[in-house]
Amino acid sequence: MKKIGLILEGKTAEYFLSHLLEQYHSSHYYTIITQESELIPSTHPNNFSFFCFDPTSNSKLRNTLTGDYHQFFLIHQDIEECKIIYSLLRALYPQTLIVASVKESLGIDDDLLQEISIPLVMSNKLLGYLPNSPVTLHDFGLGEGEVMEILVPSGSVYCYRQLGSIAQKDWKIVGIYRHNQLLLSTYSLTIQPNDRLLAIGNPKILGNVYRQITSSLGQFPIPFGKDLFLYLDEEILSENEILRDLDDALFLHQKLNSNQLYITLLNPANFELLSHLKSIQAPNIHLYIDYQKRTFEEIITLDKPKKIGLAILNPKLFALNKKTLFELFIPIFKTSQTPLCECKEAITLLGEEKIENIASVSLDIASQLNLGFEIYDYDVDENYHTESFESYKTLSQVFNKPISLTLSSTKNPIIFLQEQKRALLQFIPFSPSIVKYALGKFASTDLSRYSADMNLYPQILIPLPYENA
């Protein structure tokens, strides 16, 4: 998580802070320094720290700003004090970007200083109302976020991907700014670290795309959510199945970058089991027991606003609720008779629907769980899925995760999986075909439908991007 420093004063700072608190991104830490105590809210998220003192004090600034900072925002009304604060920040952090909101230029030659001129922004806004007048990017169109410029950090899963390999429906990458040049989009144009993508489209989808592009490696379950949710039902699960599912959930919570684990028990009946579940509660492990005989669909729908990062459930629960789970657009961990802790390798079957679109999430999870990664590519005519494999190969370099490839024209991948004596974690795209009427699967060649019905090994079903769902 990146640390960002904010030195604030005045009305502009007040508006900026208000919007930041309303729409803050939970993967950053914010340090706010201000002389104006009225700017400090009575309640705020725990990743915001507030300090009230004069930021022109070198000693106080030095004692407050500790560790590495990714960026500073300087919003201050007095130009002379602004210059002093800039000098103190630059002395402490010579290589950190400083964004300053100013009424007039600070007159400082610094490539890592980005000045935002308030009069210039206002004049551009006013010019936008003149007929036939060009407007700047941030004032373009509806002004609702349908045009976005996105900086690609070096650790992004979008690095080294060709534009043609990225599904883009309801949004498009129309160009890339690189080395002060605009490169118009082509299918083969490859994204490089520190590129700035010019994207247009549905503002809500662009918001999700932005979070995916700017997220660092090892962030799953982000961008889906931050927490894991385990669902247990005593009416359809045995005690052994419940305990096995619980072990998998605890293992995932320990290994993945999750904040909280929420355990929900439906139809409670066994008092000893209840006691055991209550005994494992902790500050980041929560138990909810439903005594109201609500259905699984009702429970998980109530949980949806909490941003489910990963839902963990038994194959029996999954089979009964496929449609509901698919419509929620969340990743699913489907338990099996094989404990997850015994798995040393992960596997993906090429040929499954839009399999390349889950590559980054699959490699992220495999890296966090420290699993080897195998790809099985089957085609009777040996017309193998080269483009899909190249997507995985390129992303594996970003994650520093070696992958192995098995090619076969004779052994069906489902039979291959059934013959394995080793414990595997399988990644499957959660495609619409999985939830279609089961009788149709026997006439289908869709690997995802057959794979999702297997319960030999644990599986993670990853929703396809919005445009593919």
Q: Which residues form runs of ≥5 with pLDDT under 50?
A: 132-136, 438-444
The radius of gyration computed from the alpha-carbon positions, rounded to a whole number of angstroms, is 26 Å
Largest sheet: 10 strands, mixed
- Classify the secondary structure makeup into a structural class: alpha/beta
**Rounded average pLDDT:** 85
| Total of helices | 14
Which range best describes the helical content: under 10%, 10-25%, 25-40%, 40-55%, 55-70% or over 70%? 25-40%
User: What's the N-to-C terminus distance?
Assistant: 30 Å
Task: Report the strand count.
Answer: 20
CATH class of the largest domain: Alpha Beta
Question: What descriptive keywords fit this protein?
Answer:
about 475 residues, alpha/beta, Rossmann fold, Alpha-Beta Plaits, 4 domains, ten-stranded mixed β-sheet, 14 helices, 20 strands
Describe the structure.
By secondary structure, the chain is α/β, with parallel strands linked by helices. The protein folds into 4 domains: 2-126, Rossmann fold, CATH 3.40.50; 140-214, Alpha-Beta Plaits (2-Layer Sandwich); 227-328, Rossmann fold; 340-468, 3-Layer(aba) Sandwich (Rossmann fold). Helices cover 30% and strands 25% of the residues. It has helices at 11-22, 58-64, 79-92, 118-127, 203-214, 239-255, 271-279, 296-303, 315-320, 322-328, 359-368, 386-399, 413-419, 447-452; strands spanning 2-8, 28-34, 48-52, 71-75, 97-102, 113-117, 147-151, 171-178, 181-184, 196-201, 227-233, 261-266, 285-290, 308-313, 332-334, 345-350, 372-378, 403-408, 424-430, 459-463. It has a 10-stranded mixed sheet with strand order 13-12-11-14-15-20-19-16-17-18, with helices on both faces. A 6-stranded parallel sheet has the order 3-2-1-4-5-6, with helices on both faces. α11 crosses α12 (386-399). The chain is globular and about 75 Å long. GO terms for molecular function: monoatomic cation transmembrane transporter activity.
